[in-house]
Amino acid sequence: MDYPKTAVPSNIFTERGSNIVVINPGSANIRIGLAQHDTPFNIPHCISRRTSQLPKRNAQDQTLNSQVTTAQHMERERAYDIVASLLRIPFLDEEVANSSYPRKMGRIDAYPPQNNMKEPVLTWTDVFEKNVPHSSTTEEDVPNEGNTSESPTLKESKIKDEPTSSERKYREYICGEEALRIPLTEPYCLRRPIRRGHLNVSQYYPTQQVLEDLHTIWEWILVEKLHIPHRERNMYSAILVIPETFDNREIKEMLSIVLCDLRFGSAVVHQEGLAAVFGNGLSTACIVNMGAQVTSVICVEDGVVLPTTQISLRFGGEDISRCLLWTQRHHQTWPPIRTDALSKPVDLLMLNRLKESYCQIKEGEVEAVAMVHSYEDGMQPGSHKTRLTALNVPPMGLFYPMLLVPDVYPPPPRSWFNDYDDMLEDTWHMDFPGGGAYPMWESYPVFQTKPKKEDVIGLAEAITKSILLTGRIELQRKLFCSMQLIGGAASIYGLIPAVEERVLHAIPSHEAIDTVEVLQSRTNPAFVSWKGGAILGILDISREAWIHREDWIKNGIHIGSGRKYKDSCYLQAQAMCYLNS
């Protein structure tokens, strides 16, 4: 469809975005919505399936090393003291002199109320099927923030009016936040298909089950949230906004889910970094994506991703939340309750909300009175009013990773990383025996692909290293003054000046660079990449890089064919021209 130069942008978005679904999958949350919408649904990327196996493995992704070694514990304490000296607060074991309040906390009602956000109590999920026609609306049905939940009293009254559990039937699966609020005593197994930026394949979670769970979660969102029935799906197109951590085989499996299982008519793949540039109306920037479990850095020049600058860090917002719990327990400010962020998903959900409400980066002692909740199986949630201390220490773990002690997740099988075709670059022109077409589900010849850089350095060092890898002083100066923070953890108060200060000190003295700047995001940092994907899809009028369902099912990937499936960095400059006009 051709539009005159006088076309109103809002009209273009309304018309062209009504049949485009933008999918931005992450390790902890999935952002999904129609391109014409201002904000997407932000839903926990997990599913709980009913199980009859005993003993049940409640969280199939928790095949990890959750035990902190003595060496890691000592390094963590040293990192705390380094951070304490920078923030001008007492060291870890230093007693605070002239303290006017007790450090030992339980249920406390004497402290004045704070102006911070009040934390609502999370209620247990009703795991039984409803006997009434499905017309209820959950707290995830509104694609924006600030949603409220029903009070426990209201939920109790509803349950009392319903039949007893012996007369009711268990739900076969539960998706989204409801899956995180299921008591451990119920016969459900929690699964997270994506962890630490990769498909969560392990000996306890086979590949086929991971893909089936992805399909089920996405299908549930499309039907229950976006109200797009299966029979009408072929009239819609999908945009996959993929994190840079995913490998080619993983991207292809997701494309097969979108085109074969979900039955979209066509689809295209865009990188999160490039989509973030479009989402904020930029052309050149250093994108710092701080997700729940992975932080990645990549540079974009004039709308083209520079793949050699990509660096992944194996920590994110959830690690900050666990560090918050460790800090409070060390200072003996945490109530005497059994909080376990690893085995109890509802506890991690509570810690994430506390982090978002109270954690910040600033000098001096940062304390707040907060409501902490305890969730014991078969009991109503308990509330504990507590004074939290050292709230500026956990976010500093972004710069001092040993403070976070990331959990060690087992890597996927090596076969995931051996793939000759790069979905995010030009197709390699190689001659293979037996023809040039290989469907994605067949065996692949083994070739060395682009390595994924994963470092254990801090955020400031990663940003500096990524920008300096460009090798051109003019571009480096431009990138150091065009840093962009996106992702959920990017909303931490005080993070921008902290990044600017530490990046400036991390630049080697022999580099002729003396100015750094983080650009303010035009929208919610957590949704920038999703919004950029929507813009790319709407402005990509020619759709030369889109993959059609019939082509994907019949032919898979064609090597050396005239049509190449390329990344958004190869889109025509027309899209950037529209964006900057």
Automatic annotation (TrEMBL):
It holds the Pfam family Actin. This is Actin-related protein 9. Residues 153-165 have a biased composition (Basic and acidic residues). Residues 132-165 are annotated as: Disordered. The lineage of its organism: Eukaryota, Viridiplantae, Streptophyta, Embryophyta, Tracheophyta. Gene3D superfamilies: 3.30.420.40, Actin, Chain A, domain 4 (3.90.640.10). It comes from Solanum stoloniferum. SMART domains: ACTIN. InterPro entries: Actin, ATPase_NBD. Belongs to the actin family. ARP8 subfamily.
